[in-house]
Design goal:
Layout (H helix, E strand, L loop, with lengths): L1 H7 L6 E6 L2 E5 L6 H14 L16 E6 L2 E5 L2 E5 L14 H13 L9 E7 L5 E4 L11 E7 L2 E5 L9 E5 L4 E4 L8 E3 L14 E7 L3
Antiparallel strand pairs: 1-2, 2-11, 3-6, 4-5, 6-13, 7-12, 8-11, 8-13, 9-10, 9-12
The structure holds N-[(3-hydroxypyridin-2-yl)carbonyl]glycine and fe (iii) ion.
Length: 217
């Protein structure tokens, strides 16, 4: 259905920008999924509200987080891990909505990764000024699966480095509806997000939300 839509309406065809081997930026890819994704997101947040977690070093993150799917990424004084239970509610994380799963799988295929079946979706919330320092995503069991990242709301400067922390990051402006698919040779590349500039987005308001889909287990 989505592929047909892109065929029939050339202006909806997302543009592609290679970021590194295995990493591609699909500008506007999530736009056709917007209303379903935003509605599903509201339900997740109602059941598992955003919270600012603590790093093992004892710093509170500026980004607020929640999760859906059978595994959720959490951090506290004991470390980083995936956990099936929301520590704030004691309940399992909300199930991954069909709209999320569909978007993640079709975007992964468009990026060259067939049969992506994520079990985890980390939802990051950035208020103006929130940032994420350079890090690698290495808490997953299987680095063969890609990560699919969906940006919603205010634009952010995404810092995309290399295999070493010292590699100078390239800067990409990620806007509402942009999707990054990344795996293979760049799966463990360092990356981060510069402090969010203030603004007001027509659909999302004064915030940026990022969904990252992973195969954790
Ligand atoms: C963000 N994203 O865009 C933070 N990690 O808010 C990430 O940390 C990230 O976008 C792995 C793969 C894709 C990502
Ligand atoms: Fe990351």
């Amino acid at each position: 259905m989505t592929a047909d839509l892109f065929e029939a309406v050339p202006d909806l065809r997302p543009s592609r920008e290679a970021m590194a081997e295995g990493a591609v930026l699909l500008r506007g890819y999530a736009k056709p999924f917007e209303s379903e994704v935003v509605a599903a997101l509201r339900e997740i947040i109602a059941r598992a509200p955003f919270r600012r977690m603590f790093t093992p070093g004892g710093h509170q993150m500026s980004v607020a987080m929640t999760n859906c799917g059978s595994a959720g990424w959490v951090t506290d004084r004991s470390g980083y891990r995936y956990d099936g239970i929301d520590p704030d509610s004691g309940l399992p994380w909300p199930a991954m909505p069909r709209a999320f799963r569909g978007l993640a799988a079709t975007a992964a295929a468009a990026g060259g990764f067939e049969n992506f079946a994520p079990d985890a979706c980390l939802v990051n919330h950035y208020a103006p000024g929130a940032r994420m320092s350079l890090h690698q995503d290495r808490d997953e069991q299987d680095f063969a699966a890609p990560i699919v990242s969906v940006s919603l709301g205010l634009p952010a400067i995404f810092l995309f480095g290399g295999a070493k922390r010292a590699d100078k990051p390239k800067r990409y402006r990620l806007e509402h509806g942009d999707v990054v698919v990344w795996g293979g040779p760049s799966r463990l590349f360092f990356h981060g997000v510069a402090p969010l500039a203030d603004g007001e987005h027509v659909v999302m308001g004064r915030q940026r939300i990022n969904l990252t889909f992973r195969k954790a287990n």
